[in-house]
Amino acid sequence: MTTLRIAGGRVLHPDFSVREGDVLVDDESGEILAVGDVADGDATLDAHGCLVMPGLVNAHCHAAMTLLRGYADDKPLESWLREDVWPVEAELTDTDIRAGTELALVELVKAGTTAFADMYFSMPEVAEAVAESGLRARLGHGVVGVGKDEEAARADHEESLDFAREYDGYADGRVRTIYTPHSLTTVDESLLREYVPKAREAGVPLHYHANETRDEVDPIVEERDERPLEYADDLGMVEEDDFVAHGVHSDAREVELLAERGTAVVHCPASNMKLASGAAPIPSYREAGVTVALGTDGAASNNDLDLFDEMRDAAMLGKHAAGDASAVPAEAVVEMATAGGADALGLDAGRIEAGRRADLAVVDFEAAHLTPTHDAVSNLAYATRGSDVRHTICDGEVVMCDREVLTLDEDAVRERAAEHAADLVARAE
Ligand SMILES: N[C@@H](CCSC[C@H]1O[C@@H](n2cnc3c(=O)[nH]cnc32)[C@H](O)[C@@H]1O)C(=O)O
Ligand SMILES: [Zn+2]
After folding, report:
1. Which of 160, 205, 298, 307 could pair with 56 in a Cys bridge, judged by C-beta atoms 3.0 to 4.6 Å apart?
2. Percentage of the chain surpassing pLDDT 70?
């Protein structure tokens, strides 16, 4: 066993108290060994003037969409997807997706994110990029039926299941998988009835977009006379390890259903504001006991992957929508970005305590915009930026030290992604 001592900082504890202390990590098993007054480690990582917090969890993302950052803005979901995003995505190659995913990984690491959930395609490339980066992920091949005949749609489901079966546990267990039908309106009922049970048999959890926009909810309600998540439940898609993205337009019955089943919701406030999708009922979810996580969604609807921004957006949108400044307080958003995300993704992380995975972000608090520190949790929610993260540790390994990414070559990744993005857009036009 070799140990790493993250020394001299203050530590954010699971009860949100902040105390001076060290964190001792076993960098072979990737576990937190001790917190507080700890004996010397084999190596030391300096955290003076810093806050040591759980690594952030981005629970809903389409990582390679970094290639489309700033390509199509200022439109609602339906036309944004159909007119702009899907035509370009049809041109994406494996190497484009690899380049875009690596760009996302650099961005995630640099903003203290240690785990994310991704729904996209060319997922073996994504899994390899994740392996290389040192991060942790829940990965799924997104299934879309729109514009496909039965055979092609079926092949998409098969690909999603094959990937999920084959890659679960990849990269020393840092990669886990999910079965990811895109949404309840873009995938056929008959194929869901056939494939959801197969995912259950394989023990793979589900992740999909649900109740994101009114345009998506209304046709289901009209056609079936039931709420979208009731329809999903009828298909067996609302189970304990599952997590749904957005949940903007859920009604009281659906909130109750998610709470009963133990299905988590991933709140994506920036994407919801940008596409004008609406404001998710976060206070209702939390009161009902639903696990709420945070996600950026893809970089084309955000337009970055900084979860500190997302925390602030979640707090601001929550208050604005409720007309109540006490709604969605600082502690709630920090919890959503850490423990909530870890719980949604089924990771033994998101809290700094002995025995948990050593997924950590060390945030430099010696900055003008973080001074003074009356309340460290308030600073995290309202004033910190991803660029304040000094070190990122995942599974006990230092993946960024003093802002230098150790696992990926940042400049090369950035150049490659810019080239792939330019070529992609040129091909699509
Ligand atoms: N196998 C599918 C790919 C689906 S990946 C997941 C899809 O979700 C899309 N997406 C990104 N953001 C959102 C969102 O906010 N709502 C719904 N879909 C989104 C994304 O562009 C991508 O097309 C195919 O052959 O088309
Ligand atoms: Zn999405």
Report:
1. 307
2. 100
Distance CA 348, CA 382 (A): 26
Arithmetic mean of pLDDT over the chain: 97
CA of 366 to the centre of ligand 2 (A): 35
Q: How many domains does the chain have?
A: 2
| Residues sharing a CB contact under 8 Å with residue 213, sequence separation 6 or more, in sequence order | 76, 77, 78, 248, 249, 275, 277, 278
Give the ligand 1 atom nearest the CA of 86. 23
Q: Which CATH number covers residue 371?
A: 2.30.40.10
180 and 123 co-located in one domain: yes
Residue of 405, 420, 357 whose CA lies nearest to 107: 405
Structural domain range at position 204: 56-345
pLDDT exceeds cutoff 90 at 39: no
Binding residues for Zn(2+), by number, are: 60, 62, 209, 297
210: in domain:
yes
Q: 120 CB less than 6 Å from ligand 1? A: yes
Q: Is 298 in the pocket of ligand 1 (CB under 6 A)?
A: yes
How confident is the model at residue 385, as a pLDDT?
A: 98
Q: 17 and 62: one domain?
A: no
